[in-house]
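Late entry, written up from scratch paper. The run itself happened at the end of the previous shift, but nothing got recorded in the book at the time, so transcribing now.
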Amino acid sequence: MRGRAYGWCGWVIAFAVITGVCARSAEAQVRGTRLATRAQLEALVDSLEQRAPTIKNDDDRRFMQQQVQYIRQRLAQGDVGPGDVVRLRVSGETRWTADFTVTPTGQLELPDVDPLDMSGTLYSEVEESIGRQLARYLREPRIDAQVLKRVGILGAVGKPGFYTVDGSSLVSDVIMSAGGPTDQAKVEDIEFRRQGRSLRHGDQLVWQNLSLDQLGIQSGDEMFVPVKGRSFTGVVFGLVTGALGIAWALTRIF
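Output as recorded:
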């Protein structure tokens, strides 16, 4: 399976950290653990935790600790969440070869079979988990699966809307998938929102080339690119003010 093909990356990452890689480069290495196994992630956490106390710069040390927290959260909760899209290919089975959305209860609902439980599943475990559950209906199923996120890319971009993207994508790549920023876009002030509430990521995180996964972006979240001089709050305020003005004008006319 694809996860095995990437299996060595976790050990290479752990070795690099142990042999003295700097804290800021740990970000790029952690991003490379997307398909690492559970055992490899646990080993990497141990290595990062041992190295963190030796980092003298406070910002670098906090950054490394954030990476540890990110991996620990993956181990505890898994990578696959509600609203994620699993692009599934099952050899010889057209009914199971399609995009399926993870339900709010963490399941995949495929035709003619009981729901497949994906809760707590790492990216590296997705194909094995699906194959094991489909083995009740099909002998030695051959599985290929990719987990994608459905996120809103709104504001000052060429084609605002919701897009299905890979969680390993960088923020800049996701923006380009929506037509790229407009001339008036203030990309450094991107706002990440979940159910109308700001996730309050610092501006610097965007420019540290963190992936959507590392930023904690979930399916259903929104990335709002403001116009220069205007924030998301300002845009909403402007829309509300405009609506009230129209309503007032109508009362004067009628």
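The two ends are 69 Å apart (CA to CA).
(Scratch paper discarded after transcription.)
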